[in-house]
Amino acid sequence: MANGEPLIGIVGSGVAGLRAANAILKCEVDARIVIFGDETHRTYNRPGLTKKRYPPSDALETTIAEDLKVNGAENNALTWQLGTRVETADLRNKVLHLSTGETFGYDRLVIAAGVRPRTSVPGNRECEFHAHRTLRDLNDARYIHDQLQTSKKVTIVGAGFVACELASLAKGYGCEVLMLEALRRGPFESILGEHVSSALGRWIVQNGVTLLTGDSARALLCDRAVGSSRDVSGAKALNPRSSSDRSLFIEAIGSVPNVEWLHGNALDLSDGVRVDEYMRVSECEDVFAAGDIACYPDPWMAGNLTRMEFWKNAIDTGDLAGRSLASSLGYDARISQIGYFPSIATEIFGLRIQIAGNPKMADSMEIVCGDLDQLDQGVLVAFLREGVTVGAAYMDKGARFNSLYINLLKSLKVTRVDSANAV
What we know:
By secondary structure, the protein is α/β, with parallel strands linked by helices. Helix content is 26%, strand content 26%. The strands form 7 sheets. Strands 3-2-1-7-18 form a 5-stranded parallel sheet, with helices on one face. Strands 10-15-11-12-13 form a 5-stranded parallel sheet. A hairpin with a 2-residue loop joins strand 21 and strand 22 (351-357). Helix 1 runs parallel beside helix 8 (311-328) and helix 2 (60-67) packs across helix 3. The protein is globular, with a radius of gyration of 22 Å. The protein starts with 6 loop residues before the first strand and ends with a helix. Residues 224-244 have low confidence and may be disordered.
């Protein structure tokens, strides 16, 4: 403790870490809160990195950062240690080892270290045909937006949310876009199933993107990259602009939880950091986790664990982790177990896509209204499990069926509560 005040460390300067810190402050906890972040910027709206075009600028990274500011990030009641990576943690002795060579002793800890992009090529590398890139932070965004402003061609690997938003962004910049999805038949198939995925694939193609799936996509992947690539930091690194036919090659093929710094603490790190329904790390007293890295009991499926990488999940779990931490210090935080209601929204080529509940649980689907061949005219889909609605998806260029979608969400919430009471 410092001056009799508990020291609270938060590893991760994203929205989950910020929301945890603000929740602690709202509980009027008399403590010093220190947020550690790899990046030099305070919390910003990370999902916004793919949603807007920017004019050419020598200060593009700063422009994007200013545009994506998050309320609460300028709170000077918090101590920010940015550009500082936590290398290792000794949870038993409550000590963090920092990239600066210093150590930080804490009384309570929130793990909100998030995830990093999964890549097919180890390290920061290039192959003879492409400059391989991923998109996770402001530095990535600056590079990619800058390249999209000048590139004629871009290849995007993957067909998830980031990949589809990047395709829409690239076309907006005037690029020729090729999407490669080797594992599935179209966008969001793992969430929404084959029929909706195929319809979204057709929508993307209608908007000028070349979408290849299966073997056709696999044939164009850079599986030779490890053998023919060179380390960008090495003396023989290839210049991505040195070849006139070299295209920007962006991988959006999933993510990996940032858990390596926690090794050696006897935690369950098989899929992020395992926590209970109050965001507490059960193997280690006084440690909590939130956001993309937290793996918690699924409120929708008894006996299952879930790890969500959505903005709302980071907000909800960050709030709960902060309140649970405050409660552990004896403050009245009014905590309740996680009751997260999954919902996400995106826009691709002007088509608004909203998904709620857990469509992955479904054993069937039903078109409530609209036609999958006319997504822009509005389509509302219900996902059912044994005849009970467990998920919903709404796609539209307007808001024709918004009231029907809201009513469907109400039935989803009832289903979740009833299921929880039945356990």
